[in-house]
Amino acid sequence: MAAADSPAIEAISASITVESPSESLPLKARIKAHYDQCSSYYSSLWGEHIHHGYFDPSSPDQTRESAQIALIDLLLSQSALTASSRVLDVGCGIGGTSRFLARTLGCAVTGLTISNEQVRMAFEMSGGFRDSDGFVKIAAESSEDNHDALIVAKKPGKVRFVELDAETMGDWFAAEQTAGKADSYDAVWISEALSHFPNKPLFFQNAARMLRAEGGKVVVADWFRDEDLSEEKVKQDIRPIEDGMLLPPLCTQSEYVAFAEEAGLAVYAAPMDISKRVSKTWDISINLVADPSLWALALTQGRDIIGFLKTFQAMRRAYANGSFRYAIIVFEKKGA
To answer: Looking at CB atoms within 10 Å, which of 45, 65, 109, 132 has the fewest?
Structure first.
C-alpha cells in the first residue's frame, strides 16, 4: 500500500532554498503560522471537517465527507454524549465538529484553536450574528435531513470560537469563572490535536478541572506510535511524521491512559484502534495534492509546507507498516 515518493514533491522540494517565514520560530509559533497560512486551502481540499474519515470497507464508493461524519458518529457512540451538552472542542479547526454537535445534538460548544485565521473562518462558516455571550445560534437539524435518526436536537445549539493556546486553557477557564462567564463542561472533545501538545499530562489535568464533578467525559481521537517500537522503526516511520506535521514526540495509547489516570480520570471506553478504517484518508490525500494550486502555495510558503506534503507519503507508509496508529479513547470524571 505504501507509495513511492512523488517526483513532483521531490522536484519542488529541491527547488526551495529559502526558509519558511516561520521556520526559525518555536514549535507552537510554527504551528500557529502554518494554520494561519494554510487553513483556507485545507478547507478547499477537505471541506469543513479537517480530520480523518472512518471508512466502511463494505462501501467502496463511500465519500470522504460521509466517512468524516462516520468518525464523529463513532466518537458519539463511544462517549454517549447527550443532547444539550456543554462541550469544549479543543483544537476545533474551522469549527466543523463544533457546528455538527450544535446542529444535531443542540450542544453549546466552545471551540479553541491557536489560529486566529481559523477563528475567523469558523465564525464565518457558522453564519448569523453573535449574541451578547459571544455565541452564534445553530438551527437544529430536522429528522428528515439527519444522517442518524437517533440523534435529533431538541432545541437549537450554539457555537463560539476562541483563539487560545490550549495548554493555557486551565487559566483561561479560571478567568472565565471569575468573570461569571463559564460553567463546567459536560465533555472536553479533542480530535487529532493532542498530538501537537508538548505537555500532554497538562492537557488531562486541565480537562479534569474543567469537567463537571460527576460523569464529565474527555473524548479523544488521535495519532499514536505503536507500542514497543524499535529505535530503527521510530527513525524510519515516526520521525518523518513528527518533523513534517510539526509534532513533538508521539505517544502510545497506553501513555495517554496513564496521563489521564494520573489526572484523576477513569477509562470510560478503552482505546479502540481504528487504523485500518481511517488509513484510506491518506490514499485520498495523495490524490488531492496533485492539484497545481497547492504547489503555488508551497512555493510561497517554503520548506514547512513542503515537509507537510511529503508527510502524506510517510503517513501511508507508517500505516502500512503498523508503526503509526489511530485510536479513540474516552475518559470519565468520577465524583469524589
So the answer is: 132
Spatial separation of the C-alpha atoms in residues 274 and 253, rounded to whole Å: 12
Looking at residue 139, its amino acid is A
Alpha carbon distances (Å) from 303 to 14, 16, 69:
10, 7, 32
d(CA 113, CA 329): 21
- DSSP letter string, 168-228: GHHHHHHHHHHTT----BSEEEEES-GGG-S-HHHHHHHHHHHB-TTT-EEEEEEEEEPTT
Question: pTM of the predicted model, to two decimals?
Answer: 0.88
**DSSP secondary structure string for all residues of 114-135:** S-HHHHHHHHHHH-S-B-TTS-
The 10s digit of each residue's pLDDT in 64-89 is 999 999 999 999 999 999 999 999 99
Residue pair 70/54 in contact by the 8 Å Cβ criterion: yes
Cell (9 digits) for 301 = 510558503
* Sheet architecture: strand order including 324-333: 136-138, 157-163, 108-113, 86-90, 187-191, 217-225, 324-333, 265-273
pLDDT, tens digit (0-9, with 9 covering 90-100), for 312-323: 889 999 999 999
